[in-house]
Design brief:
Belongs to the UPF0145 family. This protein is α+β, with helices and mostly antiparallel strands. The chain has helices at 43-52, 84-95, 101-124, 162-171, and strands at residues 2-5, 12-14, 24-25, 32-33, 36-37, 55-56, 65-81, 129-140, 144-158. Strands 6-8-9-7 form a 4-stranded mixed beta sheet. A 3-stranded antiparallel beta sheet has the order 2-1-5, with no helix packed on it. Strands 3-4 form a two-stranded antiparallel sheet. Helix 1 (43-52) packs across helix 3.
Length: 172
């Protein structure tokens, strides 16, 4: 997306439409300059970057953090089919007492996608953490497995450690 960046005072403003190379006047210092194309991240890129930093935990608190706002409970559900090939290989693996790698792979992929989706939902709603995560599986007829992931979206801030608090108080 084009941006106006003033070479004199560094004022920066994103411009909604490309202006065809028009010269613009800086609203801060009055200098004339042309818009330049910059690498402003898209909303999706910004959301994915924020989502990757969302903390998820099964506990109801995060050590060293204080919950400042509860944003609600969210859940993510995935239903996956086992597939005839997976069932066939699982029967063979079961016969020999081996682990079912086909099922494990599908469950792992579904779990990873569920966590990614929950993090995206949290980021969309302004949360930086999800606490009290609960992950459940259920089996349905027709060789379907459901994965349900629930958690409470929250905003947290880091608390100063006791050593930092003593140091701050000592300087006051």
């Amino acid at each position: 997306m084009p941006q106006f960046v003033c070479p004199e005072c560094s004022f920066t403003e994103t411009i909604a439409d490309a202006l065809g190379g028009e010269t613009l006047t800086c609203p801060d210092c009055g200098h004339l300059s042309k818009p330049v194309e910059t690498n402003v991240p898209s909303d999706t890129e910004f959301l994915e970057r924020h989502a990757s930093k969302v903390i998820v935990t099964t506990t109801n608190h995060i050590e060293g953090c204080l919950v400042t706002e509860y944003l609600g409970i969210e859940s993510v559900e995935f239903v996956i089919g086992t597939g005839i090939f997976s069932e066939f290989t699982t029967q063979i693996e079961d016969f020999f007492g081996a682990r079912s790698s086909a099922f494990e792979g599908k469950l792992q992929a579904a779990k990873n996608q569920a966590f990614k989706t929950l993090r995206l939902i949290a980021a969309q709603k302004g949360a930086n953490a999800v606490i009290g995560i609960d992950l459940d599986y259920a089996e349905f007829s027709g060789n379907r497995i459901a994965l349900m992931l629930n958690g409470t979206l929250v905003k947290v801030v880091r608390q100063a450690s006791q050593a930092e608090s003593v140091e701050i108080l000592g300087k006051g």
